[in-house]
Batch of 2 targets.
Target 1
Amino acid sequence: QLEFEDSVIYLNDDIDNHTLFDLMIRVRQILKYRKSKEYKGQLNDPINLMINSAGGDIHEMMGLIDYIGSLNVKINTICRGKAFSAAAVILTSGSGTRMISRNSTLMFHQASSMISGKLADVTATVDFVKQVESDIYGLLAAKSKKDAAWWKDNMRTDLYLTADKALELGIVDQII
């Protein structure tokens, strides 16, 4: 879903094989609309990404984070309801103001994978997932008040956070 006048994009499903390109299309539509005579704001006003998602694919998540970081316009991330797993990392990675509503919940956890195949292939997958997980800890450390070691230790099990705790940890900038 997309609201042109308010520059709102909704991320309210599982993050899957279509999420990245869907977001890219919607951002481009907003930027095109901003060049029209109908738009009353500034070209560089932030775009708002409204998140209520249980998470999903780690590769799509990394692509979304890279895309958000590559834009010349800031992306405010706003959690209303839940941002679990990949959605929580996307929320944390916003390039504008990162917000959460008072009664929303965040959840971070270790990467997971469904692995099958030859032992060599399973080992290669495990090594890759460990590297991606390490990258995520570094990303979270750069965007919060905790270091990568803290994230690694605390994400061994599902880490559920209230809005107040998310603000305290520096995952979000404000509670709305």
Target 2
Amino acid sequence: MPGNKDHSDEILLVYPPRGDKEDYWCKDYGNIKIPRGWVFLPAGDSFTTRTVKAMGPHWLEVKAAKGYTRKLGIWAPEKNIDAAIKLAQETQEQRQNKRIISRKQREKQETKYRDQFAEAVYTYLDFAPRYRKLARKISQETVERATVVGSERVGRTKKLKLEDRAALAVRAYIRHNHTKYADNLASPELVLDPYSYLYHEIRSEAEEEVDEFLDKHRK
């Protein structure tokens, strides 16, 4: 069955008028006018926007920006937007409480994971009794660096077992803090070619120093 002539039964992506023009523009139909009885909801309230979208036909207004498309808001029947705003107001406290509970759960899970990661690092180090204090210090500082949320560091990957994540993370920590690795990387030659043979030599030498550091403190 053909759609309405004003396209009020469709979901469209539209661009705002340019200059003194009144018509909007979309890829499918070219210049079109906002349907009668529709109003604009600015972007910003994700709950209200999702609710309006779930109610039925709507137009998403966007604007081309440098390198991306910016969402300005949506056009939809006024009754739908009014109903969505009312629902947002009525459920505001409930949704806020839910967000608080979710945040506390995430914080609890994150604390548990960091503790597990620190223990895995400590186990990998396996330092002799007189170096246990140092092992705890290294474990904690490794956790602080390797498990930053959203950092994409080894402590956040899901592709490796916890033990393997811990081993890679603490070896990197030792490499940067207890070997000449960082100083050697400051070589002028590496500024010109960071992936040169010299880099591989420095990295290989640093790994040997990491092994020596571990052996020394495990005895």
